[in-house]
Every structure is written in structure tokens, then in C-alpha cells.
């Protein structure tokens, strides 16, 4: 299926590794020009270089998305390099820090405002900054696609991840509201909810790409939470997420907006 993304420009936050990198590579493969944002400049440039080496068009746009002026400058630079932003993928996010040696995260009452700030700033304020920067151009051109990458914790709630669950739920509520506000402008806004994802940025533990149920006891237990993982014998990967992002970023999904779609192996079924 040709998604007809050639000539479109996409901006992906947190695109330097993992799910963001997978999305950036897939959008480029579909013909989109891709601006790769990451907090770490070397990561953003590495993925942009990977895309260019494969014959695509890409621009590294490193910036801290929690800094409104910085992300606006990065988006302006991407527009200058690649053209107006047609597709925004709000992928950058952070979860609560676990206790030492992979222990459980603390209960909400065991945390303090300083613990909440980073989670809320990256998952909520970063998304708001990016949307505020690209929506005027999308509205003017009467074409735009925004895809928020959230967590199933935001749809179902998860103990010991209260602030993170709330932040991801905010991404969903915001997407629905913006979808209503800008449907008249032909702007589609959707969310994709993920569970645990194994990717190259994780070097050890059950989410490492090298881990198997036979070599990692924790992974074996985790697979039981995901119905399809019991059969596939693995967790989700960036390649499971990127094709849906590309579809939602295309006119093949012109009549899909304000929706939340799980790519989590059945962890949450709505």
C-alpha cells in the first residue's frame, strides 16, 4: 500500500533511539522528509545520517522539548531545512525512576514534587510546546497529522506509576480535544498506547533485545501480561509501532481522529 508520504515533512521527538528511531526510519522509507529531535545531539545526528545514507532526506533537530524557546527554534530550523511540518510525532517521554537494582518504583506518597516535575515536563509540557509550534502552519495549509505516543498506563492506570499514568492520560485527553478543535482544519490527532518495548537503547535486563524467556526469568514473567507475547515469545519492538504511525500520518487514515489505539499485545483491551 502506497501511503503517499513523499513530499511530506515529519518531526519526531525523542527520535534518537528506540521507538522514535524506528518511527523516523519507517517514515523516511515511506518517502517523508524527517526531522529527528532528541535531547542528545549525537543521537539525533546519528539517526539523521542513517536516513541520508539510505537515500532519504533528514535533518537533526536536537533540543530539550521542555524548553519552549529551544523547541521552537529547533522546529524553525527543521522547517528551513526540510519545509513546513506536516506530521508531528510526540514520542519523547520518561517514566518514573526505579529503585536501585531494578526494584519497584515508589508509591505516590513516597515521592515529592521534584520527582513529579521531570515526568510532567517531558510528557505533558513538551507535547504542548511542540503542538503549539506546528498547529498554526497545519491550520493554514489545511493538512496535518499529529500522533502522540502514550503508554497503556495512561489508559488503565498502573500502581507505583501514578504521576506517569496521569501524564500519559493527559496526552490522550489533549489529543481528543485538539482533534475536535481542528477537525475543521483537516488535522488528524491520534494516540498510540504502548506496553513494554524492547529496543537497542536498552543494554541489559528483560527489555534488552538479546533477552529471551530462557535467559531472563523476569522476561518470562512479563510475557504473561501480554496475550500475543505468550505465542510470539517476545515483547513489542519499534517495528511493531512504526507502521501504524505511518498509516495515521497518511491520508489513508483521513477519517481516523481522536482515537487511542493500543500496540501492546493485548495488555489493555478496550
Automatic annotation (TrEMBL):
Origin superkingdom: Bacteria
Protein name: SDR family NAD(P)-dependent oxidoreductase
Family according to the record: Belongs to the short-chain dehydrogenases/reductases (SDR) family.
InterPro entries: NAD(P)-bd_dom_sf, Sc_DH/Rdtase_CS, SDR, SDR_fam
Alphabetical GO biological process terms: monocarboxylic acid metabolic process
Coiled-coil parts of chain: none
Gene3D superfamilies, sorted: NAD(P)-binding Rossmann-like Domain
Organism (species): Caenimonas sedimenti
Amino acid at each position: 500500500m502506497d501511503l503517499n508520504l513523499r513530499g511530506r515533512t515529519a518531526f519526531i521527538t525523542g527520535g534518537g533511539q528506540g521507538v522514535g528511531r524506528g518511527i523516523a526510519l519507517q517514515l523516511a522509507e515511506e518517502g517523508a522528509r524527517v526531522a529527528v529531535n532528541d535531547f542528545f545531539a549525537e543521537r539525533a545526528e546519528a539517526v539523521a545520517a542513517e536516513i541520508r545514507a539510505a537515500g532519504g532526506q533528514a535533518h537533526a533537530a536536537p533540543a530539550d522539548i521542555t524548553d519552549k524557546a529551544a523547541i521552537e527554534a529547533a522546529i524553525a530550523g527543521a522547517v528551513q531545512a526540510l519545509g513546513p511540518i506536516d506530521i508531528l510525532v510526540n514520542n519523547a517521554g520518561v517514566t518514573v525512576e526505579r529503585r536501585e537494582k531494578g526494584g519497584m518504583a515508589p508509591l505516590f506518597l513516597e515521592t515529592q514534587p521534584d520527582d513529579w516535575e521531570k515526568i510532567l515536563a517531558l510528557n505533558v509540557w513538551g507535547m504542548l510546546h511542540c503542538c503549539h509550534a506546528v498547529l498554526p502552519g497545519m491550520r493554514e495549509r489545511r493538512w496535518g497529522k499529529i500522533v502522540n505516543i502514550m503508554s497503556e498506563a495512561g489508559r488503565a492506570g498502573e500502581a507505583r506509576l501514578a504521576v506517569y499514568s496521569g501524564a500519559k492520560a493527559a496526552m490522550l485527553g489533549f489529543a481528543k480535544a485538539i482533534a475536535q478543535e481542528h477537525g475543521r482544519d483537516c488535522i488528524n490527532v491520534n494516540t498510540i498506547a504502548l506496553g513494554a518495548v524492547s529496543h537497542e537503547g536498552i543494554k541489559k535486563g528483560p527489555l534488552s533485545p538479546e533477552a529471551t524467556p530462557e535467559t531472563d526469568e523476569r522476561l518470562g514473567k512479563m510475557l504473561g501480561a501480554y496475550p500475543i507475547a505468550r505465542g510470539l515469545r517476545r515483547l513489542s519492538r519499534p517495528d511493531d509501532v512504526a507502521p501504524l504511525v505511518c498509516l495515521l500520518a497518511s491520508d489513508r487514515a483521513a477519517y481516523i481522529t481522536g482515537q487511542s489505539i493500543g500496540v501492546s499485545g493485548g495488555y489493555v483491551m478496550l
